[in-house]
Write a structure and sequence with these properties.
- The structure is a single chain.
- The chain is built from 17 helices and 23 strands.
- The N and C termini lie far apart (74 Å).
- Helix 4 crosses helix 8 (213-224).
- It is of the alpha/beta class.
- Strand 12 (276-283) and strand 13 form a beta hairpin.
């Protein structure tokens, strides 16, 4: 298993100094623990922050402690959503320049200032960091402890030689990059999401290992920012967990943009020479090598649980993380978990939603207020490539495995007027509905801003709004969201029997 090592923030410029002063103040002094805490939260990523702030903000006078061994804000603020989407935005401008001649615009002499792109990312990250800061949570009434939290006997947690007794506890320690066991990789050195955003100089040649969401997003981004990129993926297609048609579109885009894509790939060894880092790999029975300046690992995640001393707390866990029931409760009834450390949905918005479930189930259910189940959530997700790939609900395979009879409606973006005028016709809106009903079971959208579009479908699913009502909802024209309206209209047309079509034709003829 990959050993945990603290995230280091570099370079130590004014922006990163500001960040650290918020999320891990070097002069922070842990408070004197209360006699007993109503809630102790271990981990100050998204799930932990939402639980702590939510519990402290109820106005019930609850004593809440929050423990973080590294950086408050977790992956999302420091080495995940915020920095990645910031540099993705910069890379999008390059994608627009590449396509602008199609729009009648000629651009010459474009220069990419990689250092300025990364500096902008650091500035924006530091501007946002106060919301997750130790000082802010202290002001909310939360006792913030910086240090390594571990369970001990008699419902206690220790941190920096202090003992915190709790009535309830929440594990929200998240995950970290899984490092594949490749001979020579450790010696050669590599980047993960925890270190890649510390770059100040562009690597001319970059290998990305792993064709999941992180790998694809960063492969496209660094290619657009001027790197030669080779993406090595063990599967036969990138984004194995997405709709195959959606993944195929992105795969072709990556190839068109100059990413060298090696599928069905097994990296066998890494060696270091004067020429660079040499990856030896096999693909479809053939062996080859690639020489690069940096290697970025995007090959999955592992839970941060090894230092928690879970056994003494009677909390079960495995390689996938802390084991919880549908109420996010561990097999120790006093201890819950939320976020990446225990869930298959490893997204910031999923951690936020899970944290709200934990607040309700830990603090309100003892008073007779009904518990909330994780399985009740309708969870969308997005891969932030260009085009974006967004999904919610069931896929075709999910529906088949569940024995649900369904039908699909597929609207190509090439038939959506705004997508045509934008020059963004790659993609589609696909909606799965129950056979004989307008009930939406799931959807996949591939479009430039699919992540924004998917929320309409998610809202419809949560509120039991079917395709018929979506069809009757006026959508502004022209927008790319009209693809959803077209899908709903296509369902309504299915309801027209030959007899009704004949009558409609007669009415039209004589009107």
């Amino acid at each position: 298993m990959t050993k945990f090592s603290p995230v280091t923030i570099e370079p130590m410029d004014v922006y990163n100094q500001k960040l650290l002063s918020d999320v891990h103040p070097p002069d922070w002094v842990n408070p004197q623990p209360a006699d007993v805490y109503d809630l102790v939260v271990i981990g100050a990523g998204t799930a932990g922050l939402v639980v702590a702030a939510g519990a402290a903000g109820l106005g019930l006078g609850l004593k809440v402690a929050l423990i973080e061994r590294n950086l408050m804000g977790g992956d999302c603020l420091n080495v995940g959503c915020v920095p990645s989407k910031t540099i993705i935005r910069s890379s999008r401008s390059i994608g627009e320049i590449w396509r602008c001649q199609e729009l009648g615009i000629k651009v010459d002499g474009v220069e990419i200032d990689f250092g300025a792109v990364m500096e902008r990312m650091r500035r924006i990250r530091s501007d946002i960091s106060h919301a997750d800061s130790a000082t802010r949570f202290k002001d909310l009434g939360v006792d913030v402890f910086l240090g390594d939290g571990q369970f001990a006997i008699n419902n206690t947690v220790t941190v920096e030689h202090q003992v915190l007794k709790f009535k309830k506890a929440v594990i929200a320690t998240g995950t970290r990059a899984a490092i594949p066991e490749i001979p020579g990789l450790e010696a050669a050195g590599y980047l993960t999401n925890e270190t890649v955003f510390s770059l100040v100089k562009r690597p001319q040649r970059l290998a990305v290992i792993g064709g999941g969401p992180i790998g694809c997003e960063l492969a496209q981004t660094f290619r657009r920012l001027g790197c030669e990129v080779i993406l090595l993926h063990r599967g036969s297609q990138v984004l194995n967990k997405e709709d195959p048609a959606a993944a195929a579109i992105l795969q072709q885009v990556l190839l068109n943009e100059g990413v060298k894509l090696i599928l069905d790939c097994q990296v066998q060894q890494v060696t270091t020479t004067a020429a660079g880092k040499t990856l030896s790999y096999s693909s479809n029975g053939r062996s080859d090598t690639a020489i690069v300046d940096e290697i970025l690992i995007g090959a999955g995640r592992i839970p941060n649980i090894e230092s928690l001393n879970l056994a003494i707390a009677g909390v079960a866990a495995d390689a996938k993380g802390v084991e919880v029931n549908d109420y996010l409760q561990t097999n120790n009834s006093r201890i819950y978990a939320a976020g990446d450390v225990c869930m298959k949905w490893q997204f910031t918005h999923a951690a936020d939603a899970a944290a709200r479930i934990v607040i309700k189930n830990t603090l309100f259910s003892p008073f007779g207020i009904g518990k909330t189940k994780l399985s009740s959530l309708v969870m969308p997700w997005v891969t932030y490539t260009e085009p974006e790939i967004a999904h919610v609900g069931l896929s075709d395979d999910d529906a088949h495995q569940a024995g649900i009879e369904f039908e699909t409606i597929n609207i190509p973006m090439s038939s959506v007027d705004r997508a045509i005028t934008d020059g963004e016709t790659q993609g589609f809106v696909k909606i799965i509905h129950r056979r004989g009903s307008d009930e939406i079971l799931g959807a996949t959208i591939v479009a430039s801003h699919a992540g924004d579009l998917i929320s309409e479908v998610t809202t419809a699913m949560v509120n039991k709004i079917g395709l018929s009502k979506l069809s009757s909802t006026i959508h502004p024209y022209p927008t790319q969201g009209d693809g959803i309206k077209k899908a709903a209209d296509a369902y309504r047309r299915k309801l027209l029997t030959p007899r009704n079509q004949q009558l409609l034709g007669l009415l039209t003829k004589f009107s």
